[in-house]
Amino acid sequence: xxxxxxxxxxxxxxxxxxxxxxxxxxxxxxxxxxxxxxxxxxxxxxxxxxxxxxxxxxxxxxxxxxxxxxxxxxxxxxxxxxxxxxxxxxxxxxxxxxxxxxxxxxxxxxxxxxxxxxxxxxxxxxxxxxxxxxxxxxxxxxxxxxxxxxxxxxxxxxxxxxxxxxxxxxxxxxxxxxxxxxxxxxxxxxxxxxxxxxxxxxxxxxxxxxxxxxxxxxxxxx
Length: 222
What we know:
2 domains, 10 strands, alpha+beta, four-stranded antiparallel beta sheet, 23% strand, six-stranded mixed beta sheet, globular
């Protein structure tokens, strides 16, 4: 069960492409909240007042819940967690990677189509050791469209090797929108706005999303 829903949702985002756009989410000012691909822009980070959301997958049933909301970056405590950051006016969100050395890949086999990727060779694959596209479920193996075109045209191209994460270290970043939606973050944006340095939920107004988990940690959905 571990990581199943996280993996499934990331795969769905990558495979669906632009065919099915995600639902529109609005902040308290009526402005659209969108994915900043692949990470928040430097100008958003420079403004400060960022909000970090730690989402966790339940051991019991694989459901997603909010582990914490904070103005300070939380550490990843286990492999079932992912961390997403919102900019100051809650109009942009993205995975909050500790390491993200991206560059632009030009696909010569597909009209030099440009894609922002990260090379994960030499990087750690445990989130608790290094949170990056190489360890996060949002980092997905990047296979250039030109590779598939060449294979379809009869060229001697081993597409399975390109699709294998043990041979292909290029990663693209999927949107965490589905994770945030399933965890109920967009339904409780007021909690993002009011997050303190170490935000603690009011237990009386909180439901235990992970009630069947051993730790019974409360999340902010009540």
